[in-house]
Amino acid sequence: MRFTEEEVQWIQQHKQVTLCVDPDWLPFESISSDGRHIGIAADYFDLFSRVTGLTFSLVVTDSWVQSDQFLREGRCQILSLLNHSQERSSYLNFTEPYISSPVVIVTRDNEGYMDGLKALAKKNLSLVDGYVYEELIERDHPYIQIVKYQSSDQTLEAVSKGDVFATIGSLFIITERIQRLGLSNLKIVGPANYRNDLRVGVKKDEPILLSIMNKAVEAIEPKDDAEIVSRWVKVKYELGQDYDLAAQIALISFIILILLGYRSVTLSRYNRKLSDAYDLLERRTEELDRLSHTDALTSIPNRLRLDEAITFEVNRFKRYRTDLSLISLDIDNFKRVNDQHGHPVGDRLLIDIARLISGQLRSTDVFGRWGGEEFLILCPATAKEEAIIIAEKLRLSIQNTHFAPVGQVTVSFGVTSIEEGDGEKELVSRADKQLYRAKNEGRNRVCHD
Fold this sequence. Notes:
15 helices, 9-stranded mixed sheet, single chain, 19 strands
């Protein structure tokens, strides 16, 4: 890659370029509490700085809408990461894409597979105000009712509460936020049939800067993509039980391509990179299968894996009438830990408790994170009386362990065993009922039916 004489002159004259970003779009990007640009885009801009010799000076904003407004007003020269749209083309030029991610539909977990946004006819959909999805949906699906919110967190929480039917967003964003917010009643139900082909947006009156940034994007190597994305993205993807095989393969392929840093651009430009990408794809298939069944924080089975295990064991009971017990457990006063010590300490506590429990269970037990601070232990070939003993042993072990810097922590347990006529929901519901009883009766105890 070589800069023209005109481009070199521009770089020498300017040195510093003002940059506006989305302050609430992790893992893509955000502004930290100390005013730094962080996330996937920030790591790419470190690369761009080394390639071009330019310093990118962050202009701090409160929202994406404000960032867009600041650029229009001339307070910054470029926007770090955004989709191309017809409306934005009136005041921006765009580089080639440097990050690509599929857009997915999210609803509550009682909904089945949806093949695109046409399934949302006459339903409402939450969107972040100012995002390009609004323009696309009004053009392609005018029958969908749009409800606007100020952040991605709010759009997901609105779905979780039942205020709106669904939302859409980048796979990267959705997986990170559902996990972080502990919204265990949400799931990805299908593709929205859009992609985030994310680019640098440059003010219309900066054509030389546009050319410089395009060359910086072109200089990105596949290894740079893979290294940057792997630092920020942990895949937690829950496939609904109604997905047919073709849909599963298509969605999983999207995720693998993202993890490899694949960017959707013209074939002529990236033909030379395809063979390397497909080699990586084969090596990562096994890893993806493991990640899709593993909780990103605690590295134990996630809700998807637990759902599969419960279904398998319930079906085995129906055929062979083997014993089956389920233990539901929840960390007492966990919100107080987060409030007093911060979320990183809360995350560390979840990891430590998961590790302690895992080390005391039998190889046949299935232990996983159900959501937030709640866990399940599935005990095949185990009568209720034996499961109660297991739960009591774990309760005492946790109670007698010092978890730095929190100190003593207690956990409440609910125990049940399968009964004639039970399905998966009935079994889980009874265990939860006993867990709530343990909470109501004073916490740090084992209750059973």
